[in-house]
């Protein structure tokens, strides 16, 4: 049924091959990313209008969107003040009542287009009923013509448009493309159960010209499933190819270093940490290089898991690289690992943009080919650094394991370059952003996933409050109290500097002095992206030593910073941060035995913003927060730069389609496994 793979589908023909599309229209369509017949056929409607029966103008209801059909009985431009932009107004009549429509900025073409006697379909929300009025409606000319049946007396699609291309023209072009090419829409190579789903060709027709509105979702699911099958095929093939070509380095270890390490760290691993480590050990000793994503909420103890994993590789005689997203974090890890590993005789090296451990500068990074001779002779070492350094020609001999901390800051592409350069070391990526299951199966589909679903005991609880800005004096009194009792605080603002365009958003450079005053005589430090790394590190060192009691910072401190004595987190203009990001910030506190407090300040009156922040008051569960964030903001935020690595989804929805994604995964797996057994 499917077209042979090497034959080019007629759907790949350029859009100009469609009758009615010349240079000019092709240029307009290109703005909508439509270049081929297939692009046009898959240009999904943004809404539908049931035009089998029109609402009488008389029955329009306030603020309820509706489509009516009427003739223009009066039209013209109006200018209220000299020099002001003109307004354009039309009056439509359908025999039941009159409807006024206004455009506040008249366009030159309106005069000739909205002429008395012409009939239009008008869609919009009435903002008044006396007189009946809709501002800026969507309109569509009703013309007596052969193809009128495409546009009225049916459920009509309204597609995303661009200036110069009307809904009517778009609908007509898609109708034509369907008439001519419908039979060329083939079933994909991985066949679906056609008892459950319409054929692909049917689905394409139904998405544009449904018989009933319920057809739309049926068609969308079919087309979405096709997209997910394609995506899963890419993911699973990549994984299979990887497994076929990559031989694993034996890094399972022998507990020689692990035993004394666990005896010295001062706490017992949680059951969750231990169980994740069993999975990792089995990967490191397995036939294929490990590709594992470790999810664990902030404070769940991922660093200890990283350390144990590193020890397994080190015991096996391999070097380890550990990448952090910021210099502060790299330094923090460097300090911890030095404390933990040097007594075991393991060398710990630091590589960041501004600092390198060792007198002669550590690894040679620029030419990438030469490592310091001592590395080659000394027992295995662990290299800790920022990702920038590791991607610039990182070439470490005997690299057995790469650990990436806070994965969501890295792109898929970066992950790949690293793997190729490093001669297939094992890979462990760690993230505190709980990845919703839909994304886990798509974006991270080529990774195995482990979850630390338990927090170490002995932690004080975190209480979260959302407050308006007029409570700030009280809040600062509260912070003073906590500092007097020996605790420390973070105070976070969205900006480094106040922007002219938005003076209401607070910035660290401006607030720093205010906070110093409010908390004096206690000492306050300042941290943001434009401060020199050496100074940043000095501020962090003073904070850790409680020489300074509070830090004023941007979201720079979002990831990983670990100072258990800090128990207060104040975030101003909280509405400017994503939920997941706020949760990360909040994760900086609640790391010690004391009770912690997170205060979110927001003057945002709108209900949505308020209820969004309230989610943080209600739960500390990062997974719930990530799902809520995904629903509210879409996957863009979570995907970030990684989005470029995935295909464009026209019908599939990464927020809602968990079931379809699962079906696609299983279908593809079955198909690929079957193909493999046939070959071998
Ligand atoms: P994250 O998962 O956010 O990276 P960290 O690894 O920074 O968390 O750990 C947070 C804190 O919890 C650290 O101070 C760490 O030493 C401590 N910790 C980790 N594991 C345990 C454990 N099993 N018991 C007690 N404390 C632990
Ligand atoms: Mg961490």
Could you provide a short overview of the structure?
This protein is an alpha/beta fold and 680 residues long. Helix content is 36%, strand content 18%.
CATH topology of the largest domain: Rossmann fold
> Can you name the CATH architecture of the largest domain?
3-Layer(aba) Sandwich
DSSP summary, beta strand count: 22
| Arithmetic mean pLDDT | 85
Share of residues in strands: 15-25%
What is the number of helices? 23
Bound compounds: adenosine-5'-diphosphate, magnesium ion
Distance between the termini: 25 Å
The largest beta-sheet arranges its strands as 6-7-4-3-2-5-8
Going by helix content, strand content and strand pairing, the class is: alpha/beta
Contiguous uncertain segments of 5+ residues: 359-377, 640-645
Task: Tell me about the largest β-sheet.
Answer: 7 strands, mixed
Tell me the name of the CATH homologous superfamily of the largest domain: P-loop containing nucleotide triphosphate hydrolases
Radius of gyration: 31 Å
Please tell me the total number of domains.
Answer: 4
């Amino acid at each position: 049924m499917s077209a042979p793979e090497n034959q080019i589908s007629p759907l790949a023909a350029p859009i100009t091959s469609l009758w009615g599309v010349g240079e000019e229209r092709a240029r307009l369509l290109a703005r909508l990313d439509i270049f081929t017949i297939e692009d046009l056929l898959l240009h999904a409607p943004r809404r539908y209008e049931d035009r089998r029966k029109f609402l009488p103008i008389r029955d329009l209801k306030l603020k309820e969107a509706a489509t009516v059909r009427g003739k223009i009985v009066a039209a013209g431009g109006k200018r209220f003040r000299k020099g002001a932009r003109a307004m354009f107004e039309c009056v439509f009549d359908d025999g039941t009542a009159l409807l006024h429509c206004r455009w506040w900025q008249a366009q030159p073409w309106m005069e000739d287009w909205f002429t008395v006697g012409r009939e239009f379909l008008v869609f919009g929300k009435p903002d008044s009923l006396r007189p009946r009025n809709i501002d800026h409606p969507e309109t569509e000319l009703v013309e007596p013509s052969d193809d009128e049946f495409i546009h009225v007396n049916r459920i009509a699609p309204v597609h995303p448009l661009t200036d110069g291309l009307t809904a009517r023209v778009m609908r007509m072009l898609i109708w034509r493309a369907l008439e001519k090419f419908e039979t060329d829409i083939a079933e994909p190579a991985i066949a679906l159960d056609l008892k459950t789903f319409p054929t692909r060709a049917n689905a394409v027709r139904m998405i544009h010209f449904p018989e009933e509105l319920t057809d739309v979702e049926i068609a969308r699911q079919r087309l979405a499933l096709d997209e997910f099958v394609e995506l899963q095929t890419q993911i699973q093939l990549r994984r299979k190819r990887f497994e076929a070509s990559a031989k694993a380095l034996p890094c399972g270890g022998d507990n020689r270093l692990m035993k004394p390490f666990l005896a010295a760290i001062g706490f017992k691993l949680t059951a969750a940490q231990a169980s994740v480590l069993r999975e990792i050990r089995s990967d490191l000793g397995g036939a294929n290089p490990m590709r594992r994503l470790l999810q664990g909420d902030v404070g769940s103890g991922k660093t200890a898991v990283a350390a144990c994993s590193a020890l397994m590789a080190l015991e096996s005689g391999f070097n380890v690289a550990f990448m952090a997203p910021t210099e502060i974090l790299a330094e923090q890890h460097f300090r911890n690992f030095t404390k933990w590993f040097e007594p075991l005789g393991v060398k710990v090296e630091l590589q960041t943009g501004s600092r390198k451990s060792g007198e002669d500068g550590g690894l040679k990074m620029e030419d990438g080919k030469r490592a310091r001779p001592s590395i080659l002779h000394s027992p295995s070492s662990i290299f800790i650094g920022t990702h920038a350094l590791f991607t610039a020609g990182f070439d470490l001999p005997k690299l057995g394991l790469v650990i990436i901390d806070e994965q969501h800051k890295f792109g898929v592409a970066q992950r790949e370059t690293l793997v190729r350069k490093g001669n297939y070391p094992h890979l462990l990526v760690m993230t505190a952003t709980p990845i919703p299951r839909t994304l886990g199966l798509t974006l991270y589909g080529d990774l195995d996933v482990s979850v630390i679903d338990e927090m170490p005991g002995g932690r004080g609880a975190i209480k979260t409050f959302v407050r308006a800005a007029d409570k700030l004096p009280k809040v600062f009194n509260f912070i003073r109290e906590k500092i007097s009792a020996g605790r420390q605080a973070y105070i976070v603002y969205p900006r480094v500097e106040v922007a002219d365009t938005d003076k209401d958003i607070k910035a660290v450079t401006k607030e720093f002095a205010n906070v110093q005053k409010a908390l004096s005589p206690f000492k306050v430090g300042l941290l943001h992206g434009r401060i020199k790394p050496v100074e940043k590190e000095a501020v962090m060192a003073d904070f850790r030593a409680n020489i300074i009691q509070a830090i004023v910072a941007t979201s720079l401190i979002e990831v990983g910073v670990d100072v258990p004595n800090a128990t207060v987190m104040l975030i101003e203009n909280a509405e400017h941060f994503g939920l997941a990001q706020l949760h990360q910030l909040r994760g900086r506190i609640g790391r010690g035995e004391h009770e912690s407090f997170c205060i979110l300040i927001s003057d945002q009156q709108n209900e949505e913003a308020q209820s969004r922040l309230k989610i943080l008051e209600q739960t500390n569960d990062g997974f719930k927060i990530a799902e809520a964030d995904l629903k509210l903001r879409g996957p863009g935020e979570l995907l970030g730069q990684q989005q470029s690595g995935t295909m464009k989804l026209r019908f599939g929805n990464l927020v809602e389609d968990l079931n379809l994604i699962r079906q696609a995964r299983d279908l593809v797996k079955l198909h690929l496994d079957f193909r493999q057994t046939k070959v071998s």
